Amino acid sequence: MIGFLRGRLVAKHPPALLVDVHGVGYELEAPMSTFYELPPTGTDVGLFTHLVVREDAQLLYGFATEAERRLFRGLLKVSGIGPRIALGVLSGISVEAFLHCVETQDADSLVRIPGIGRKTAERLLIEMRDRVSNLSQPGELAPAAGGTGGAQAEAFSALVALGYKPAEVTRLLKAAEGADSTEELIRRALKAAAGD
After folding, report:
1. Which backbone phi and psi does 47 adopt, to 5 degrees?
2. Left (φ > 0), alpha (ψ -120 to 50) or beta: where does 22 sit?
């Protein structure tokens, strides 16, 4: 399983990406939420990935944050939801907003996402209700009102891109709690790593 790629971003044409990793070009598909976070082509990028193996194809999907990938994987477990619809959900709503919709059983917000009808929205709400706790990681997906969810996710991605393992990043970010910006989180996490 390919879980993470770091390399040079060669091309980005939504939903397709091409990343050169030491001379090997990986084709990926990514949600729009990831495209908004991408650097210009020709620069380095780090992406969490999910590999789907089918009888007729092997498809690689890329995500800017671990939270996006976790939600994508959760959506694939819902009956009738494939990778295409899961990408559409992530393109149309943030992870935090989706989890809020599930917690409040807000089908109307989900129906506004292109490709999601009333029946699909209701099925998502029912089947994802028990999985919300597994999708939320303490500190990583703080409620949008708290304002730290995005900073935590960005810092997580940046530290993984620097070569730290995800489990180590989670530990470092816990040590950096209390910071209110991505830069401050990264600075404190790196200071904690240097102190080890």
Report:
1. -135, 140
2. left
pTM to 2 decimals? Answer: 0.67
The CATH class of the 4-63 domain is mainly beta
Is there a contact between 111 and 117 (Cβ–Cβ < 8 Å)?
yes
Domain edges within the chain: 4-63, 66-135, 144-195
If phi > 0 it is left, if psi is from -120 to 50 it is alpha, else beta; for residue 113 that is beta
Half-sphere exposure of residue 41: CA atoms within 13 angstroms, side-chain side: 8
- The span from the CA of 167 to the CA of 182, in Å, is 18
**Strand partners for 17:** 12, 28
144-195 domain in CATH 1.10.8.10? yes
pLDDT digit string (tens) for 54-71?
A: 899 899 999 999 999 999
Q: Which stretches of the chain are DSSP H helices?
A: 32-35, 66-76, 83-92, 95-104, 107-111, 118-128, 132-135, 149-161, 166-175, 182-195
pLDDT tens digit string along 3-52?
A: 899 999 999 998 899 999 999 999 999 999 898 889 999 999 999 999 99
